[in-house]
């Protein structure tokens, strides 16, 4: 199969490299010439475990190429994937579809022969209809179908998620397009991954429903964690106690500083807006978004409380900045709210993150960056763990305690055990545990 991938961002690059690895002939197109030049030099613009190797292998074997212009790639492709960004529109929270619609116009102008146009970007219900209308308007003669095929990739585990998906969702009522999509995903299909065919609008909504449900699950356990602290219960035991019930499931029940990242905050807001527009408001998700937004700053206040009620003039060491481990992504990271709350309260911040410090410099001001975790802790009045990088699980606690001016640790990811930390003489606070 010949595949064109429009957008060489996170989703486009991972999907393109994985499709090439299945044996398809893939061209990833991006309008940013610097990105294409870098990819052609073998440099990967994002940090994702295993991606650099996968790209290099498929480029070497001739199945993966990069281009700045989509014409040639689209002309020869049987399937063209739209994997461009859909950021939250400033002001109203709706998904901004400018890039998707521009891609549809550009694809329409270039396509030749029967072409399946696939939206992989997360797009509100009805976007496929609009993409179809735009293509038809631009090229009344075109022979094509528009399919929704949302991705469910987690950053940091994207390649595994792509190659071993829980399911593949294919939204189309066009039988020929269904055939092309089945062929593209054949290696997974043969590997027993369920391939779910449904209407295009249903597929579009399924993506939002999945992310909103997961965000709800996290927010639920976060609120239970707050209650645990008040009543003297342990949230990890509660999570295990409910998670082993198959109807609930044990995943996404880790209490923490609130969800962040490029998907959950944006997708919950977009779902809320769509539901309001159709006069079918989803109140539970409205509440989830509001609770999560408040939680991030509340975590800053938790650190202030751990420091005896004031952080004015104190140095707070922050370990972990990215919204989760194994990524360099700072989008909607809880660390931003935690740090700004502490700065507003008069604290000086010293931070360390294995991959996120460059990206952090663009969103945070007045932060000193350390060269490692111990350097970060040096003479600090408290240490806060915001992101659970594996590196922080294996710290030498004796060395850490010696580095700190005050042995105060606020562990927002429940990385350490309260009994052990107390035994070692730390003043230790975590989430949902005493
Ligand atoms: C998510 C979805 O998982 C993926 O299917 C979708 O396609 C894109 O959005 P991602 O944003 O990469 O993926 O990260 P994920 O691992 O889902 O974590 C999202 C946020 O929730 C992170 O801030 C994480 O720290 C937080 N989280 C996750 C928790 O606080 N507790 C949990 O139990 C799980």
Automatic annotation (TrEMBL):
Catalytic activity: UDP-alpha-D-glucose + 2 NAD(+) + H2O = UDP-alpha-D-glucuronate + 2 NADH + 3 H(+)
Record-listed NAD(+) binding positions: 30, 35, 86, 122, 155, 266, 331
Pathway(s) it belongs to: Nucleotide-sugar biosynthesis; UDP-alpha-D-glucuronate biosynthesis; UDP-alpha-D-glucuronate from UDP-alpha-D-glucose: step 1/1
Any one GO molecular function term: UDP-glucose 6-dehydrogenase activity
Active site residues according to the UniProt entry: 263 (nucleophile)
Gene3D superfamilies (alphabetical): Cytochrome c1, transmembrane anchor, C-terminal, NAD(P)-binding Rossmann-like Domain
EC number: 1.1.1.22
PANTHER family reported in the protein's UniProt record: UDP-GLUCOSE 6-DEHYDROGENASE TUAD
Protein name: UDP-glucose 6-dehydrogenase
């Amino acid at each position: 199969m010949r595949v064109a991938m429009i957008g060489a961002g996170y989703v486009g690059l991972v999907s393109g490299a994985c499709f090439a690895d299945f044996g398809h002939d893939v061209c990833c197109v991006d309008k940013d010439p610097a990105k294409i030049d870098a990819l052609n030099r073998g440099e990967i613009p994002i940090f994702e475990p295993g991606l650099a190797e996968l790209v290099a292998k498929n480029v070497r074997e001739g199945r993966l190429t990069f281009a700045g212009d989509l014409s040639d790639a689209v002309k020869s492709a049987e399937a063209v994937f739209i994997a461009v960004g859909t950021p939250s529109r400033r002001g109203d929270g709706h998904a901004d579809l400018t890039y998707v619609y521009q891609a549809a116009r550009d694809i329409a102008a270039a396509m030749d022969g029967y072409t399946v146009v696939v939206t992989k970007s997360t797009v509100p219900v009805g976007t496929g209809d609009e993409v179809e209308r735009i293509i038809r308007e631009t090229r009344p003669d075109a022979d094509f179908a528009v399919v929704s095929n949302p991705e469910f990739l987690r950053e940091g585990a994207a390649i595994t998620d792509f190659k071993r998906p829980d399911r593949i969702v294919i939204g189309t009522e066009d039988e020929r397009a269904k055939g092309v999509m089945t062929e593209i995903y054949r290696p997974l299909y043969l590997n027993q991954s369920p391939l779910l065919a449904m209407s295009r609008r249903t597929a579009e909504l399924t993506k939002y429903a999945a992310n909103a449900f997961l965000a709800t699950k996290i927010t639920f356990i976060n609120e239970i964690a707050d209650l645990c602290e008040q009543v003297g219960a342990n949230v990890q035991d509660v999570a295990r106690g409910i998670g082993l019930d198959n109807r609930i499931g044990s995943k996404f029940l880790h209490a923490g500083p609130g969800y962040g990242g490029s998907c959950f905050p944006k997708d919950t807001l977009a779902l809320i807006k769509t539901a309001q527009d159709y006069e079918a408001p989803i109140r539970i998700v409205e509440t989830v978004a509001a609770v999560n937004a408040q939680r991030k700053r509340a975590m800053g206040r938790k650190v202030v409380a751990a420091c005896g009620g004031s952080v004015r003039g104190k140095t707070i060491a922050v370990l972990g900045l990215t919204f989760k481990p194994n990524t360099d992504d700072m989008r909607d990271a809880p660390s931003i709210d935690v740090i700004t709350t502490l700065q507003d309260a008069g604290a000086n911040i010293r931070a360390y993150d294995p991959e996120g410090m460059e990206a952090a410099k663009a969103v945070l001001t007045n932060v000193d960056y350390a060269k490692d975790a111990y350097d970060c802790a040096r003479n600090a009045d408290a240490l806060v763990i915001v992101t659970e990088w594996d590196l922080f699980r294996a710290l030498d606690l004796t060395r850490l305690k010696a580095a700190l001016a005050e042995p105060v640790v606020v562990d927002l990811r429940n990385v350490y055990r309260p009994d052990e930390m107390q035994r070692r003489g730390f003043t230790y606070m975590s989430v949902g545990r005493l």
